[in-house]
Amino acid sequence: MNRIDSCFADLAQRGEKALMPYLTVGYPALDSLPELVQAARNAGADVIELGVPFSDPVADGPVIQQTSHAAIANGMTMTLALKQIAGLPQDDQAPALVVMTYTNLLLNHGYERFAAQAAEAGISAVIVPDMPVEASGELRAALEAHGLYQIFLMTPNLSDERLRTIAEHAKGFIYLVSVLGTTGERDQLADIGPFVARVRRFTDLPLAVGFGIGTPEQARVMWQQAEGVIIGSALARRLADPVEAATQAHHYLAGFKAGGRR
Predict the structure, then answer these.
(1) Where is the active site (predicted)?
(2) Helix or strand or coil: residue 61?
(3) Which of 62, 67, 86, 128 is the most exposed place for a label (fewest CB within 10 A)?
């Protein structure tokens, strides 16, 4: 069973929802990943999204863009990212790992090569925000041959027909974009209830909400309607100092768990 499936099944059995932090691999320092993943795990993370930096991250807001550019300047590459991820603990209690990256990086690396190395590294799924479902067949085939999933995004402005098409190819979970635009914190989030209701008509997969969530209170509202909450820009802003990054990550994420995940 894919780790994503078992993770959400275990959470559902316990009556809990998923805390899903995003970390840019290679930020704030080239070798920050192990400490940050351990800090997130200790704070209660269930799934960790690992961003492999790209020079033109079109889906990301200014904060994540800055972390990507810094990670590239630090020397991070796809090959090194996979090597670092492979060195993370892989015990039964470890969070599921999901890589987020962009089409050009995957094309340059090679779909089959990436899928094989990702599986060996313990990665469960991949998010490619600039790859529409119609163009995903070759990558999905390579991933699924190695037991990995491709995670797809849904946005509130999509037609029912489009939602149905994406749902037909989706596995693991659906990434719900809570607001239109790029990633980044918002003072107020839109009511996603009607959007969630539409999506539920087409899939029984767990739903994870991202884009704009920055406080435990916002997460609690989203957890009432979805199975997971993704925390990205608000966490990244707290990680600029390599010396304090792990401590800051743990303190910030633990506040979400204490804020009420049940």
Answers:
(1) 49 (proton acceptor), 60 (proton acceptor)
(2) coil
(3) 62
In a domain, 11, yes or no: yes
* CB neighbours of residue 255 within 10 Å: 13
pTM of the complete model beyond 0.85 = yes
Work out the pLDDT band at 259, boundaries 50, 70, 90.
low
Residue 20 lies in a domain: yes
Q: 8: domain CATH number?
A: 3.20.20.70
Q: Which residues contact 97 (CB under 8 A, 6 or more apart)?
A: 3, 47, 48, 50, 85, 88, 121, 122, 123, 124
Average pLDDT in the chain: 94
**Rounded to whole angstroms, how far apart are CA atoms 166 and 97?**
22
186 has a pLDDT exceeding 60: no
Cα 254 from Cα 111, distance rounded (Å): 36
* Catalytic residue numbers, as ranges: 49, 60
